[in-house]
Amino acid sequence: MPVTEAEAAAVLPSSGWVRRYVIHAAKQTTAPLVYHLGVGITTMGVTCPLSYGMHYAGTLRTNNFCLLVGRSGEDNKSSALNVGREILDAAASPLIGDFPGSPEGLIDSLQNAPSQLIPISEFGKFLSSAQRGYFEPTKTLLADLWDSLPIQRTKANNNSVRVENPRLSINAACSIPYLEKHTLSEDWTGGFMGRWLVLYGRRERTDPDPVGCRLDFQWLADELRKRAVTANAGWCMGLDSGASVLWRNWYNDVTNRPLPSNIVGIRSRAPTIARKIALVYGWDFGPASLGQPWKMGVDVLEPAIAFTELHIKSLTDLSHVIAEHADARLRRSILQVIDNKGGAATLGEILGVLKLRKRPVVEMLDALMEEGRVNKAEVSFGRGTAFVSCRPASTL
């Protein structure tokens, strides 16, 4: 099941800008509360000074890639993105970046503004283009940027463009069919998608007249502006004694937790994501804004871990739409077409929906008949021979 409103509300920090932002955003749109929490964390993170961070398996920074996943046209993903974008635009518009048409364009943009947050309301189109190869170099570059590694490119005149301290954050939205169609388990176990903070929500609230209450808008913009112009933040020196115990127990639990094989990469990425979020909370309501070195305590680590658990829950629940490999995805697609056609579909109907060549579809249908998943039968209404499902739709 998607993350519920109650689950998202339970992990809200007890104070701070992010908490007040989520309360404000919930009054603007009926998008799931977990979306607002993810957008708020990423928006606060982009205001951190370039020098801010901590040592954890290298040098860790506060930039995040947040992906809102839900039903197309039902869960108000774009509306959730727009609430955060509007406040950041009012507070510090130069921090809002545009999605690049090429890796070179992204590097040039980051040279001019090393800290950026790019909103992407149609991330599924990016995944589709990357699968065809057009945006594959951009995917590779984004993977490095999540780690805040220095990047560079060489121009035609042999001059180099280098960005020493890139801090790129992304808030994106994607519908489930795009995620299913354009990602494989290899993308999640250690590749590009494994770096995303994935939040799977479903709209629970309704509002026939969503005019929104904007009483907190100016306060949120003003506070965010103060953070964006603050040049220094206290370096995090590690965990204090209480946080160290909490961290060790949770880390061991995640490492040994049984997870679906196609998303097992969560074990290595979730701890890093939790530390990134804790750093953002340290900048939001912790001591980092005082400008002195500090140790991370339970006050910022506990809500960060709790929120990371919603990411783990989201990916675990979405694991059934992430195929192990291309053949598995084709198999699932064929079975879904048959199911959507009432449990029986002709070859022509399957080809018409999938828009694929005949040969791989026929070969997969032969395999499905061999394993007893479908069989051939005559159907009524002049459709001729069709492939009929042998199992209920719940087992697809």
Characterize the structure shown.
By secondary structure, the protein is of the alpha/beta class. Helices cover 48% and strands 15% of the residues. It contains 16 helices and 13 strands. The chain has helices at 5-10, 17-26, 33-45, 77-92, 103-112, 123-131, 136-146, 176-182, 185-189, 217-228, 241-256, 266-284, 298-318, 326-340, 347-354, 358-370, and strands at 54-55, 59-60, 65-70, 115-120, 151-154, 160-163, 167-175, 196-200, 236-239, 294-296, 344-345, 374-379, 384-389. The strands form five sheets. A four-stranded parallel β-sheet has the order 4-7-3-8, with helices on both faces. Strands 11-13-12 form a three-stranded antiparallel β-sheet. A two-stranded antiparallel ribbon has the order 1-2. A hairpin with a 3-residue loop joins strand 1 and strand 2. Helix 3 runs parallel beside helix 4, helix 6 runs parallel beside helix 8 and helix 14 crosses helix 15. The two termini are 17 Å apart.
Instruction: Based on Cα principal axes, name the global outline.
Output: globular
Largest sheet: 4 strands, parallel
Task: State the distance separating the first and last CA atoms.
Answer: 17 Å
Can you give the helix content as a percent range? Answer: 40-55%
The largest beta-sheet arranges its strands as 4-7-3-8
Number of strands: 13
- Radius of gyration over all CA atoms, rounded: 23 Å
Strand residue percentage: 5-15%
| Helix and strand element order | HHHEEEHHEHHEEEHHEHEHHEHHEHHEE
